[in-house]
Write a structure and sequence with these properties.
With 105 residues, the protein is an alpha+beta fold. It contains 3 helices and 4 strands; from the N terminus they run βαββααβ. It has a 4-stranded antiparallel β-sheet. Helix 1 runs antiparallel to helix 3. It is globular. It starts with a strand and ends in a 10-residue tail after the last strand.
Length: 105
């Protein structure tokens, strides 16, 4: 959908932390991020080699800005408390240009 913002967080996780990381993300962190009301949905994927990507979908820039100003610091602090080492976090913001959907026949 046009005007959607994709806030993408990529985390590279060292092997001993992977099970705990997946559990933390699915049971706590992603639900907490969605509970802020800033994102409509999230997608959590992995390449099975220790790289995880979470794509949070916001309705627009204002929703992402509210998340970053009001909630991000506290959620990042909680994440760092659970994973003080053994993870590398990268963040990117993508702006939707157009969506294409296959026409079901």
């Amino acid at each position: 959908m046009e005007n959607e913002i994709y806030y993408e967080v990529t985390v590279t996780v060292e092997s001993p932390n992977r099970v705990g990381f997946e559990d933390y993300m699915t049971r706590r962190h992603i639900p907490d991020v969605l509970a802020t009301g800033c994102f409509a949905r999230a997608i959590f994927v992995t390449d099975r080699a220790g790289i995880y990507r979470t794509i949070y979908v916001a309705a627009g820039q204002a929703a992402l800005d509210r998340y970053l100003s009001d909630f991000a610091a506290g959620l990042r602090d909680d994440f760092a408390a659970h994973f003080p080492a053994g993870v590398l976090v990268e963040r990117q913001v993508w702006h939707s240009l157009e969506e294409f959907i296959e026409d079901a026949k």
